[in-house]
Amino acid sequence: MRRTAVKNDERITLATFLQPAAYLTPFMLGILIFTVYPFINVVLISFREDYKVLSREFSGYGLGNYARVFADPTFINALKNTAIFVAAVVPAATVISLLIAVLLNSKIKLQGLFQTAFFMPMVTSVTAVGLVWRWLFNFDYGLINYLLSLFDIGAINWLNDPRYAIYSLIIYGTWSMLPFTIIILLAGLQNINPQFDVAAKADGASPLDIFFRITVPLLAPTIGLVIIVNMISASKVFMELFPLFGGKPGPAYSLYTVIYYMYEQFYVKWRLGPAAASAMILFLIVLVFTLIQLLLQRKWKNY
User: What's the whole-model pTM score?
Assistant: First the structure.
């Protein structure tokens, strides 16, 4: 009898369904209005030929926008620059953040001060930080060129020479990605049971053995998460260009990225069709690499 009563109490009724649904309704409406609808709208616009922004008129549906985008050398250059940025920034930021997170997780003096110092960029304006980096990269009196001069290396025109502009963007992008990555990896390190380290030390394992054979394998899911998130974030590189290069895509317009190409197509040239097509291309590329990353991540779990 008691078991029957419990089952009846747990039975889903209209009242028990409506209460949580009422709590979720504002959130679901926000998702539908600000995420689902814009995404569907971009997909449709990317296939509309000769789409007019103000009148919303178009001649028909087709692949003309995609053909126009792929035939544009500027977009191909933007894809190349974005790929170089992602391929350089994501691994560098992950490795550096992992080393810093391990140090912050250990018992060192002034640990709280160091944690605050590394996390400060997350609450600092991107524009303000970018202007500081613009000063650091200055050809005449920048700190980076001064440090290079100590090793008898000539001054590098980081911001005005197309050969070095991509490196300045990579350095700035790597630095700006560190705080978030450090926080996530530090949280993952703190969830690892310290008894694993104690047992390994009792067996005579060296710190490097503990790091590569215990810490890294147990941290693999977290590392996979930050790689996916950082890859998505790096593929949307845009705001970093404004403070470094004065709102332009690098010196001589040589540092186009996909997002900057979309921005120029829509806000400058009012070509919404190519802008939507380039957005869908970037979305599909990121989606494919994310799925590959998720499939590979399954093999990392060995516990």
Answer: 0.85
Q: How close are the terminal C-alpha atoms of the chain, in Å?
A: 43
Burial class (CB in 10 A: 0-12, 13-18, 19+), 79: buried
Number of domains in the chain: 2
Which residues are CB-neighbours of 127 under 8 A, at least 6 positions away?
Answer: 239, 242, 243
- Contact call for residues 177 and 89 (beta carbons, < 8 A): yes
One domain, residues 141 and 248: yes
% of residues, the chain, pLDDT over 70: 92
Q: DSSP 3-state assignment of 60?
A: strand
Residue 15 domain-assigned? no
Lowest-pLDDT range of 14-28, 81-95, 105-119, 181-195: 105-119
- Residue 7 resides in a domain: no
Residues 225 and 127 in one domain: yes
Q: 48 pairs with which residues across the strands?
A: 61
Domain residues for the domain of 274 are: 71-300
8 within some domain = no
Please write the tens of the pLDDT for every residue from 26-43: 888 888 888 888 899 889
